[in-house]
Structures are given as C-alpha cells and as structure tokens.
Amino acid sequence: MKRNLWLGVLMALMTVSAFGQDRSLWRSASDIRDGARGSIIGTVVDIDEARRQLTLTADDDSTQRITLLTDAVSTQYNGFGGMVNDTPEVFRGSRGFTQVSVGDRIDIRGTGRGTARVSADQITLLGRSNVSSSGSSSSSANVAEGTIRQINLREGRLVIQTDRRMITVRTTSTTPVYYRGQSYQVANLEVGDRIRIDYEPRTAAADEITARSIDVTQSVDEGGTVSGDRVTNVTGRVTRIDRGADTIRVNTGRSDVTIDVARAGDSSGRRMRASDFKVDDQVDITGSYSSASNIFVASTVRMNDDVLGTPRSDSDDSDDRDPAEFVMVTISGTVSESLQTSPTLVVKERTTNRTLHVFATDDFIYRTKAGTYATADRLANGDLVLIKAFRDEDGNLIAQTIRIR
Predict the structure, then answer these.
(1) Distance of CA 383 to CAs 220, 264, 379, Å?
(2) Which residues have CB under 8 Å from 217's CB, separation 6+?
(3) Which CATH class is domain 24-127?
(4) pLDDT digits (tens, 9 = 90+) for 343-393
(5) For the chain, is the Cβ count within 10 Å smaller at the N or the C terminus?
(6) 397 forms bridges with which residues in the sheet?
(7) How do residues 13-49 score in pLDDT, each as one tens digit?
(8) Is 225 helix (H, G, I), strand (E, B) or coil?
(9) Which CATH architecture fits 223-303?
C-alpha cells in the first residue's frame, strides 16, 4: 500500500516535470513555433467573433500582433465569472468566448500554429482595462474611435473611419451623444466629426458595432479641424454682435464661432456689416477659417431668420432692399412629409426643429448622396436634405436646389 502510494507520487512528479519541459514561456510572436506547446501573457486588442479569434499584444513585445484560435467547444476560460459553490466558475467554448473584451489582460496556454498563431486550450483573465468616456458616466473596455464618413438616421447607422478600417455603428434615437459636457442626440452629429464610441461588448461582426454612448472628441465645426484655405459653411443663430470689430458670434448648436464679416456680402453681392445683423438671426455663412486663428472669415451671408419666423422689419434699420426682392435661404433638415402625401415638401429644420413648407414640383431634379440625380417625387420621409430656396414677398419658399446629405 505504502509502496504503491510512493509510486503514484513519483509518476505524478514525472508527469509535471515532462509537461513543464514540453511547455515553453513565449515572450513575443517570434518565439511561437508550429506544434510547440507554450504560454504567453498579453492584452486583447481585437476580437473576431465570426472566426472566433482574438488578437493580442504580448507584455514583453507590443510591436507584434498574435492571433489566438479558440475552439467553440473545448477552450477553457478561467477568471471571467464569479463563484459557484465556493469554486471559481469555468466557461468553455462559445460561452467563454463571449466573456472576453478588448483591453483584457490574459494568460494563454496552447499550441503554436505557425508564427504568431496559437491554438488556445486555456485562457485566464488577469485584469481588465476600464477606458472612461469623457462625457458619460459609464466606463468600458469596448471603445472605438474614428471620424464619421456617413450618416443614415433613418436606418440608425453611422460609418466611421478608424486608423485601420471602416466600421458601421448601429444607433437608436435614444443613444446618448456627449460634447463638451452637454448631452445631444445622434441627429446632431455631422460628417467629419471625430467620435469615441462605447459599444456593446458582443455585437454581430468585427466591422459592425452597436453604440451604447457616443462622445464627440472633435467637432467638424471647430476651427482647428479646418485648414486655413478650405471653404466651408457655418450655420446657426447669432448670439452676439461686435460692431466695432465688425464681427458676430454664431451658435451652431454645439459650439460658438466668431465670424469676421468685414469683407462679406449677401447672396446678391450687397455689402454686409455687423450692424446689419440682429441677435437671434438665423444665418448660413460661407467662408473659411483664418490660418492664424480660429476666427471664421465670411465671404457670403444668407439670412435665414425669415425662414424660421416673421420677416424682418425695414422700418428700424438701414436695410434698403426692396421688400418684394427674392431672398436666398438655406435649409438643412429632415423630410417629415414627402410630395407623395403633401402638395409641398415639409422639412423639419435641423437646428431649431421648426417645420417648413417648401414648394417643389414632382419632376424637380435633386442630387442624391451617391452623386446621381432623381426627381423630387422620390424623396421619402426621413431623408436628410440641404435645400437652397428663394423666399418670395409672401414668405413662400421655392426650391432652387435640393441634395441629399
């Protein structure tokens, strides 16, 4: 009995010793050999759910990527759950794979499958990285950051360009958006905004994620995002007028922009000065940011306050325009009623949520997002549109150009 016990202990020690000699400690991707068993510690930087693969960087070499191949049935996951009957919960296969998040620091044991590839038998969680969101109160390791390239509010979809690839971001009308400590909606986002997304840990595919919250880290409206000679537009409400400096301050809905109107004119070429503006005027201004500062230098000013309210009075200022003169206005918003059900195109203006009626015939030609052309009777509810229109002496808006945003 005693002899058999010592024999069993000796066999166990030999087995452990053999396993220790067989298993190597890999410190970098170049240490991994095909068919060799080993272990490595690193941080998860990407998850490919479709292929059930994890990508990580080793603690001792962050310059190379290592691919972990997992089994949908047998791969064992330790440390990702709680305690069951005073014993740490162990996950296996697909159930365990869903517990892993980007930013996790893990210990992998498995078999090499060529250079920088490991077939993982066992994955142990060593620690989790919490990446805090600048505007929201939640923290998550599931964070993606990039620049918005496409927006489709009707389908609840954004497309962002990250440093490595294009990603589709799924959103809802209630997805919170934060910018400079204030809350906004997805409808306030614009192409060119740089955003950070806190997303659901397990979404459908590597190139499609579902946003839990969005932080705008840099707005396309900010002076620092536009080069000095690039022509662009600022649209919003006048909040301040400095007649001495010939500047105005315009709130775009997310930021205040100082605008130099010293060399600006209206759509007909008439000279404009700061004294021509009133607080609460709605304006659409074309120009460019100064290369030496964040001041926007205006070239053309379109007064949109008449679109959103009553026409300005001519009795209390020096405006010498004929009241019957057509005025060009710009409307940016969402189609709330199309020509299929209404005699006019009904548009909900983006910055003020006012409802505007725009006259356009069924065969009026508009430009699609793809750069092709279609007739206005094909516009649908929910389409994002940018409309240039004339306002006649009766206040009617008559479409001149329409394009999909």
Answers:
(1) 21, 32, 7
(2) 134, 145, 194, 195, 196
(3) mainly beta
(4) 889 998 887 778 888 888 888 888 888 878 888 989 999 999 989 887 766
(5) N
(6) 358, 391
(7) 444 444 444 558 898 888 898 999 999 998 888 888 7
(8) helix
(9) Beta Barrel (2.40)
